[in-house]
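Record 1 of the preview.
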Amino acid sequence: MNLTRWRHAAARARHAVLLLGLALLAGAPGAGAADGERWEYVATGGGIKAYLDPMSVTRDGDYVRVEIRVEHPADRESSDKKFTYREVQNGQVMVCGTRKGANVTTRFLDSAGTQVSSREIPREGWDKALRDIRVGTLQERILTRACALAGVSVPPAEVAKPEPGKPAARPTVSVGSGVIVTTDGAVLTNQHVVEGCASITVTDAEKKRLPARFVAADGRNDLALLRASGTFPQAASLRQGTPVRAGESVTVVGFPLVNILGAEANVSFGYVSSTVGVRGDAASFQISAPVHKGNSGGPILDEGGQVIGIVTSKLNALGVAQSSGDLPQNISFGIKGEIAQSFLNAQGVRFQTGEIGQALDKVEGAAQGKAITVMVVCRRK
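->
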């Protein structure tokens, strides 16, 4: 090779090294916009969103290693009360064959993305840190995805058998709400309401109880589509043509705290406080109408009875109070109707739409909301 050709080859090699360095920098934590591209959405649960870095999955003997990122909707206080954080990035190890896992590195970040604390378990302590991963949890979703990327199979969870003379454990039951989107049985709710369910039933305003099956989910926006094995007398109309407006009145219908308030649909009123959600999320909006556990998945209606959103969560008032010293009240969130309509269109669901109509009085609005809302009961093993 002559000197000129050698110089060209050396220049190309330096350029390749530079590109590799830039790529690695883009994938490093705290790298800005490029950092968001490395994370693959996994699941939503309890108001948090979990992401996984597919490129981080490696095998280390019996362990599968993976980097996880967990976003919280509001600041949380550390267990030792020394700092607050909004996001956690974990380095996890898993033993797929035994369905066990552990966080071996933990980075706590504040709302600005600045690290406020970190922890690490040395290699020799990994085995002792392993814990069983429970069925139906967000962690099981991470286990399944990480092990699949590593090419390692995960055995099905064993169902614990009762000891002789003792009754079998009862299934866990949770209650949420749903919106009837077609009279032939399509129901829209939150993904977290029906995640991990062994069976699902829905009950309409006429107390007709129907089994339902899971059809599809949009985990990023916490939406799920169910199909009930029966028909309904009335379906919702989703508003088109006018986006959510700050200050407009809303009606929320759902089944909160059924153990205390009973199985009758509950109605609350409020207004749109903001047209964006937590941290400026454009897919959601904020309402002042009070919601509680069990409201998730229920409709948010405008003055004319059109659905403009789906209830997703309320702000963790105690968590905010601990971090800010102020106790927020009546701060709840919903997924915008346009997002729900896009999800339904993607699933081929033909639903009713309408434009802003004449305002109903509160009694009429409440009746309209109850007629298109179902109670969703999930039974988990």
